[in-house]
Amino acid sequence: MTMRNHATLLAATSLFLVWQIGEAFYVPGGSSTSFAEDDLVELYIDKITSTVLPFPIDYYSLPFCRPAESAMPSVGIGQFLAGERISRSPYKIHMKRDIYCEQLCISNLGRGDNKYLETAPSKTAQTIRTEYHHNWIIDNLPAAYKMHDQLSNNTKYFGGFPIGFVDPNNGLSYIYNHVNIELQYHTVDVESDDQKFRIVGFTIEPFSINHDFEINTDAYHDDDTYTIAEIKDPILSCNPHMNNTHTESSMVSQGSAQLSSGPVLFTYDVIWSNNEDLQWASRWNVYLNMNNVHPISDRWLSISNALVLVFILSTTITAILVRILHHDFACYSSVPTEEETTENLMGWKVLYADVFRPPSHPMLFSVCCGSGVQILCTSIFTIALTQIGFLSPPKRRYYFICVLLIYALMGFISGYTTARLFKSFKGRGWKKSTILTAVSFPGIAFTVFFVFNILAMVNDSFYVPFFVMFQLLVLWFGITTPIVFLGAFTGFKRHRIEFPSHVKSIPREIPCQPWYMGLIPTMIFGCFIPLIIWFHELSRVMSSLWLHQYYYTFGLFFFAFLMLVLTCAEIAVVFTYYHLYLENYRWWWQSFVIAGSTGLYVLGFSLLFYVTEFRENSISGFVFYFGYMTLVAFAISLMMGSAGFLSSLWFNCTIFSFLEQKMCHHHDND
C-alpha cells in the first residue's frame, strides 16, 4: 500500500472517529437549560443497576409503564461503552405545575415470591431481592433517593432509588408503585417579564401503596388528569375530593404495602419548590457529598500520610545518591592505576562493563515498556483533563470516548519508546516489535471485552452491539496502529541510546543472592507502601466503578496518582541499587516487575472488595467482575512497571556516567 493510500485511510478513519465523538457527546441537558412556566420537562430513564450484582438490566425489560412514543435519544459509542441506555418515560412533567396522585398505568407484575410456592418468583421480585435501583434523569440531573432516618431524625440522600424492598418479618418483596418527584428551581432573570427558570434539584421519595382499585374501561381526562382506575378507600392524596394534597409518609402508613405481584396501579406526585439560594453550578453537591460517606478530612489525612511516606523514600534515595555514592566515588578517586582500579572495585562499581547488558527477551521487554508508557500517558492526560473541568460529572459519557481518543494519540509515544529501546538492545525485526506493540495490549483488552460482552448477552444484561464493536476495530486498526507505526518509524530513525559504559562480550558471573532479594520477596515488600498510599483513593474508585457512586475529587486523585507513580519509581530505584550493590546486573526485568507488582495488590484488593460488597455471589458475576479487574490490574502493572524501569534507567545512567568520568580522569592523569 502506498503512502498516499495510508494517508487516505488515516484521514477517512479520523473523520469517522470525529463523527462518532460528536454522536457520543450527546447529553440531554448537558448545558444549562432554561424553562418557561408550564414548559414540558422531559424525564429520562436509564438502566437499572444493582449494588450486589455487576450486571445492569434494561428498564423496559421489566413490566414498568411505557410511554406512548417509543422514540429514544441518539446513542453513540460513549453511551454504549459506559453502559448507558437512556430512554423516554411516560411521566408528564411541566415547569412549576404540581401534580397530585396522577395515575400512570396498570401493569401486571406476574407471580409473586410466596415461600409456599415451588415456582420461581417473577423477574420483578428477583430484581427487588438483588437490590436493583432506578436511575432517572431530568435536565441531565440524576435522581437522588430521599429517605428519612428515624434514628438520627435526618434526611439522607442516595444515588438512584430502589425498585422495592423486602420485608424482614415475612420475607416477601414489595414494589414502590408511587413516587414523589420533588423538583427545585430558581429564577434566571428575576426582573424580566418573560421569566425563565432552571432546575437545581431532583429528588425522589418512593412509596409502596396497596391501591385497591377497579379498572375504568372508559378512561377520561378531567382537568388535565388521566383516570384509568377507580381507587376504593384511597389515601388522602389520592382522594379526588381532596384537592392540592401531596402524598406523605403519614398517609401511607395507614394502609398496607403493595406486593410485587399481580396487577399494580402506578401513581406519582410532582412537587415544585423555589430555591433561590442554590445555584445551577452547585446543584450536583447533594450527589457528590452523598451524606459525607467519605469525609474529606479522612482523605486529607490519607494524603498527608502518603506525603510522609513519599518524603521518607525520597530522603532514602537522596542519601544513596549524595552520601553513599559520594563516599564510593571518594574511595574510588584514591585508586591511582587502572589495574588497581579493577582489582579494588567493590559493589555496584564492578558492574560497569555489564550493567547495560541487554535483558533477556528484549523484544518482549520493549513492547511491555512501550505499552506501559502509553497507558501511563493516557492516564495522566485523562485525569488532568478531568481536573481542569473538561470532564465533569454532567459529562460522564465523555470518559470512555476521550480515553479511547487519548490512548490512540499516545500510540506515537508507545511506538517511539519500543523502537528506541529495541534498537538500543541491538534487536532485529523492528516491524515485528512494532506490530506486537500495536496489537498486544489492545488485543488483550478487546478479547476480554468481547468475551464478557457475550456473557452479558447470556445474562440478559446490557451489551455493546456488534456494529459498535466494529467501530472499535476501525479505531484500533485505522487510527491507533498507524500512529504506533509512525512513532516506531521516528524512533528507529534516531540513534541508539548512548549508555555511559560499554558491555563486554563475556558476561560476569553473578554471585549467590540472599533470599530476601529474590523476585517474590521483593514483589511482596516492594509495592506494599504504594498500596498504602493509594488505598483510600482506590476504595473510592472501586465504589464509583462497581457501586455506582459519584466520584468528584479529581484534584486529590490526581495528586494521589502522581504520588503512586513517584513511589513506585523510587522503590524500583532503591531495589535496583541494592541489586547492583550485590553485583547483580539483571536489573531490567527486576525494576519493571517490582514496580509492576502494584497491579497484583490491586487485584488482591478487588478480591477483598468483592467479598465485602457483593453479597449475591454468582459464577457469572464472579467471572465478569474478576475478568475486568484482572485487565485493570494488568494495565496498572504495565504502567507502574514502565515508570519503575525508566526511573531505574535514569538512576543507572547517572551513577555510571559519574563513574565513567572518574575513569576517564584517571586515564588522563596517566
Strand content: 5-15%
Strand order of the largest sheet: 4-17-13-14-8-9
- Count of domains: 3
Q: Structural class from helices and strands?
A: alpha+beta
Return Rg in Å: 31 Å
Unreliable segments (pLDDT under 50, ≥5 consecutive)? 1-30, 339-344
Quote the average pLDDT: 79
User: What is the number of helices?
Assistant: 18
- Kindly state the number of beta strands: 17
Please bin the fraction of helical residues. 40-55%
Shape: elongated
Distance between the termini: 59 Å
Largest sheet: 6 strands, mixed
Give an account of the 3D structure.
The protein has 3 domains: 169 residues, no CATH class; 259 residues, no CATH class; 204 residues, no CATH class. It is 49% helix and 14% strand. It contains 18 helices and 17 strands. A hairpin with a 4-residue loop joins strand 8 and strand 9. The longest helix is centred in the C-terminal third of the chain and has 51 residues. The N terminus is likely disordered.
Features of this protein?
670 residues, disordered N terminus, 3 domains, alpha+beta, four-stranded antiparallel sheet
Topology readout:
Layout: H1 3-24, E1 43-45, E2 49-50, H2 77-82, E3 87-88, E4 99-108, H3 123-129, E5 132-134, E6 136-138, E7 141-142, E8 144-149, E9 154-159, E10 161-162, E11 164-166, E12 173-175, E13 178-187, E14 197-207, E15 212-221, E16 226-232, H4 249-252, E17 263-274, H5 285-289, H6 296-333, H7 338-344, H8 362-387, H9 398-409, H10 411-424, H11 430-458, H12 466-493, H13 519-526, H14 528-546, H15 554-581, H16 588-596, H17 598-613, H18 619-669
Helix pairs in contact: 1-12, 6-14, 6-15, 6-18, 8-9, 8-10, 8-11, 8-15, 8-18, 10-11, 10-12, 11-12, 11-18, 13-16, 14-15, 14-17, 15-16, 15-18, 16-18, 17-18
